[in-house]
Amino acid sequence: MNDKENIARTISRNSLFTIVYNVWYLGTRLVLTPLILSYISIEEYGLWAYCFVVLSYLALTAFGFNNTYIRYAADYRSRGENHKINELLSTGIFSMVALGLILFLLFLFGLPVLIPMLGIDADLTQTAHGLFVGTAAIFVLNFSLAGYQCVLEGEQRIALVRKIHLFASVVELALLLLFFYLGMGVFSLLYAYGVRFGLIICLSFVFAHRVFPFLSVRLRHLRLEALKRFADFGGKMSLLGLLSLFINSADRIFITRILHLESAGLYEIGRKLPNIGMMLPSAVAGTLMPAASHLEGSQQHDRLRGIYLRSTRYIMLLSGLPYAFLIFFAPQIIEVWVGPGYEGPAHVMQILALGTLVNLFTGSGTACVRGMGLPGYEMQYMGISALMLLGLTPLFIHLAGIQGAAWAYTLAQSTGSLYFLVRANRLFSIPWPRFIAMTVPPVLLLFASGLPVLLLCRSTWVPMAPTRWPGLGLLALFGCGHLLLALLLVLTCRNRLFTAQEKTQMAGFNPPGPMAPLWKKLWSTP
Description:
Elements: H1 3-37, H2 42-55, H3 60-79, H4 82-117, H5 125-144, H6 147-154, H7 158-181, H8 187-211, H9 224-247, H10 250-259, H11 261-276, H12 279-286, H13 288-297, H14 301-338, H15 343-359, H16 363-371, H17 376-427, H18 432-448, H19 451-464, H20 468-492, H21 494-497, H22 500-507, H23 515-523
Helix pairs in contact: 1-7, 1-12, 2-5, 3-4, 3-6, 3-9, 3-13, 4-5, 4-9, 5-8, 6-8, 7-8, 9-17, 10-11, 10-17, 11-15, 11-17, 12-14, 12-16, 13-14, 13-16, 14-15, 14-16, 14-18, 14-20, 15-17, 16-17, 19-20, 22-23
Main location: membrane
Protein name: Polysaccharide biosynthesis protein
Keywords: Cell membrane, Membrane, Transmembrane, Transmembrane helix
């Protein structure tokens, strides 16, 4: 097997395990929520969630360091400079331990002032103090020693990292149930969370030393050059994290300030599914950064260009169907999920699904430019989106309420995304006609396949007036119909839609039983 096939298989395997882990994590969180609320009050649960909102800003420091580990570990390995991995890891860990300790002490000193500012009830002050201190300690310990996990990701062992996370998540789930049974209350969440990350740190340490037998973290490996890498590239990635945090929260901040909490809650209902839908395509894009670093370090620019274009195409193929379903059937989804009378969130869902789908065109490109050490491309497009959000969101909210906020987000993200695609295609020397031909037709085809089902839904839903469970069954039938029509349309247009290489790969797949001859015939090159 040649190096090209190895990289393709590695990306596919990493993407698969990332998707499996994300589906597991999302599924368990959805199932656990009502279970948790049967043991603790809604105020305690809200307090636990609040810990992560506050500490997310503390985690921005780790975001920059972690991306620096991944980018440069992959680059050094591609050049055979193993000693620089020791210098990178040693400098990063000692720096983060010192920085983490300072941030933790500052957080402890500021906590007595912070808790009253957050409006936490007096009877929950002691609980809040314990939860904040515990989660902050776990955060600091995790990002101080995250270098071991990140160098594994830089070596493209993302599948191994996801297995570690999956195992730790299963242990967390078991311990959570045990701690609740023992009557530990809301602190059950903290203790189980701490064990989970303790396992991740320990297992990452063990496997990092197995993958890199030469690995050594020592004071003698500290280097100013490595520290400059963290300050330069890591600082830019932290700024990217801050911009991303602002873009994903600005609409809710303005809604809360202008329209108050009830409108913010309605908006949250509409944004949840489009936001969750990003998990799977983002998982695929996230595996590309170390691969891009490897190809850039070994001067394989043509292959990097091919990975950028193909991965964008596959991400849009993966995203087209679920986002078409969200846009077409948002009113029915909202009615089945939270009940009738929520037309506003349904419209918000449709608008945000459109904006998110456009933004997903940038997914593989942003991962590639990060891997190439060019975060400026991403910073510029996110800066455009952030400035547009600042200017448009208050105006649009006053004009159209929560739907106006959704339109402001969609316009800002779409404009920034288009700007990024112009620059990325120029960077990779890809003409616009070729980019559009490779990425847009699959999305249009998946949307077109849903139109007959949409017409059927509109003619049957209102007369039937289904309640929640019958409505869920009917919605599932519409979803299956959409999927079936999409598959039929893809097979009908396969000779125009797929390249010769893709058809050869599809023909190499062996379905079970009597389907094999038909499958071979379908994908044979005419």
